[in-house]
Amino acid sequence: MRRLNHLFAAAALSALLGVAANAGEFKVIANSSVDTAAVSLDDLKSVFLETKMELGSGHVVPVLEKSGPAHEAFLKDCLGKSDSALSTYYRSLVFTGKGSMPKALGSDADVVEYVAKTKGAIGYVAASAAAASVKTLEVK
Q: Which CATH number fits domain 26-139: 3.30.70.360, 3.20.20.100, 3.40.190.10, 3.40.50.300?
């Protein structure tokens, strides 16, 4: 019984460390017009699922990466969806007239450039990506 408890504890610790490792694979960035320095995980999810289009006192525009480790980690850790499930979700928003497909760009550099020049833009890039022209938001 004691050994089983140790195995369970080890498995739980491994799972937690895996989530922490994934969270370190991306950072959330925003245009300088976005008037907040931090965003809750729930608000971030709502913005990218287009159920909430404001952070702080201003309108925000989500932008996605098309693929890659940061994209996969963001989908898993923030949205709880696979890439195909997210595409299906966005298509249903478009079909019902309740939303639109967010812009999806091919690289970290493209996302940083778009966010830097687009008022209200919010996106994510690899944690190691150069992003001096935008602000990095703390995810709580």
A: 3.40.190.10
